[in-house]
Specification:
Layout: E1 8-13, H1 17-29, E2 34-40, H2 44-54, E3 58-59, H3 62-69, E4 73-76, H4 83-92, E5 96-99, H5 107-120, E6 124-126, H6 134-145, E7 151-157, H7 162-173, E8 179-196, E9 201-216, E10 221-227, E11 240-245, E12 248-255, E13 258-266, E14 273-275, E15 277-284, E16 287-296, E17 304-308, H8 324-342, H9 349-368, E18 374-375, H10 380-383
Parallel strand pairs: 1-2, 1-4, 2-3, 4-5, 5-6, 7-10
Antiparallel strand pairs: 7-11, 8-9, 8-18, 9-10, 11-12, 12-13, 13-14, 15-16, 16-17
Helix pairs in contact: 4-5, 5-9, 7-9
Length: 386
């Protein structure tokens, strides 16, 4: 366990694009809590390039990095398919780790990482930032206040793919809600020719749609919808999430990332919805960094619910002005830092990340079984074949 005021040393493990444009700046901005010790890459050229970009010693030998630089935390940022392998390597090197999503593509790989961390007393957090973004955090604060009562049904309505979308859907029900079975359908369809923003290409495209119904203990339901072109297609612009609760509901509406939250409770008299007003509170009247998300509920017992940005500047005008996604990712790192210091657990952690990936795989497994429900937990030997 680390002393509260002691800086933790961080190594960036991997040279993926997020290493330089996202993780290194976040580590530097959290200078009171962490410091960048070194970077590691498989190839000398890429490791050196990253080290020079971020101004840190670079290594291709992880054991040597650990011996010479004594990092506490490793941020694993590698190519998509290498998450599980490099994540396990970082844990086995003795590091607490922040892993990219998914924790691993195969459940057996996730289990190996979790077991290795438990054997060494290491902490694992996963960079699942979707439910940590400010708009999601204020919704979760409202649900936690009890104003909505019990959430019966939740939806990832094209808000994010795979584990990202599943995490948002599950967050409304509560991460302690236990899923029992998943019914899924996966289909591919041709689309008219159009521009792909991510690849910069034009032409005919094919989408893969994924749809899942997740049944939770206590009769609650989760609905999952996604399309493989959901991030970069003018044909599929809808990105939303929803929850239906005992005393109201919430729905995200808009186009791509230009969205609004419509949150409503029962109005006095019980005959109409009363809409909650959300306010972004900035550090200055003309902008600056985000200070808080404030919900004006209209409820006389709890008229105001607030989520405070943990990264708001301590001195006005002398702090970072992150967008919502960067705030979410920084929250993942801070969760790990707090767990290492306190000896407690991260707020999301490896088991939740594994479950989000397991549900994603169960949707695909159910579809392969002709729509028959896939019972949870899955057998890793079966799911690893997907």
């Amino acid at each position: 366990m680390q002393q509260h005021g002691q800086k933790l040393r961080v190594a960036i493990i991997g040279t993926a694009r997020r290493s330089s444009y996202l993780y290194a700046p976040i580590v530097r901005a959290l200078a009171e809590d962490v410091e960048l010790a070194a970077v590691w890459g498989r190839r000398e050229e890429s490791a050196q390039q990253l080290g020079e970009q971020v101004g840190a010693p670079w290594y291709t030998d992880l054991d040597r990095l650990v011996r010479e630089q004594a990092p506490d935390i490793g941020i694993v940022s590698v190519a998509y398919g290498a998450n599980g392998q490099v994540g396990l390597m970082a844990v086995e090197a003795g590091l607490h780790v922040l892993l990219e999503t998914p924790i691993a593509h195969k459940l057996s790989e996730a289990d190996a990482i979790i077991a290795a961390a438990a054997a060494r007393g290491r902490k694992i957090e996963v960079a699942e930032q979707f439910h940590r973004r400010p708009l999601e955090q204020i919704k979760l604060a409202l649900i936690a206040s009890g104003l909505f009562g019990r959430v019966h049904t939740s939806y990832n309505d094209f808000a994010g793919h795979g584990y990202h979308g599943v995490s948002v859907m599950r967050s409304y029900l509560g991460f302690d809600a236990r899923p029992l079975q998943v019914t899924g359908a996966v289909r591919s369809y041709p689309l008219a020719a159009h521009w792909s923003r991510l690849t910069g290409t034009r032409g005919d495209r094919t989408e893969t749609q994924e749809h899942g119904l997740i049944e939770f203990e206590g009769g609650r339901l989760g609905h999952y919808h996604w399309t493989s072109v959901g991030y970069d297609s003018a044909v599929r612009w809808w990105r939303s999430s929803r929850f239906l609760a005992e005393r109201g509901m919430g729905i995200t509406v808009g186009v791509n990332l230009e969205v609004q939250e419509w949150l409503s409770l029962i109005a006095p008299g019980g005959e109409a919805p009363h809409f909650i007003t959300l306010e972004r509170r900035w550090e200055r009247n003309d902008g600056g960094a985000l200070i808080a998300m404030v919900a004006h509920t209209g409820d006389p017992q709890q008229p105001i619910i607030t989520w405070e940005n943990p990264f708001r500047p301590k001195v006005q005008g002398h702090g970072v002005q992150w967008h919502d996604d960067e705030i979410g990712v920084a929250g993942c790192l801070l969760s790990l830092v707090n767990a290492v210091r306190s000896g407690g657990e991260p707020t999301y952690g490896a088991q939740q990340a594994r479950l989000d990936q397991e549900i994603t795989l169960a949707i695909r497994l159910s579809s392969r079984m002709g729509g028959a429900p896939a019972k949870l937990p899955l057998d890793p030997a079966v799911s690893d074949l997907l």
